[in-house]
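[INFO] parsing input record for DUF2292 domain-containing protein
[DEBUG] input buffer:
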Amino acid sequence: MAKKREALDDQLRERVLKALEGLEYGSIHIVVHDSQVVQIERTEKYRVPAEKAEGMRASK
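[DEBUG] output buffer:
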């Protein structure tokens, strides 16, 4: 049974590392129920620089 637990721990570790791979902005959310990891969520955000169109200015 200890081998099963180690295999599960290794699998979870790999999944968390894979979720982190290439993530620049965002979060990893790990959901646990009854001391067991049941879900891993990855939220990724892309930052796009704001550009103003030429000739358009905010008037005050």
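[INFO] Strands lie at 26-33, 36-44.
[INFO] shutting down worker
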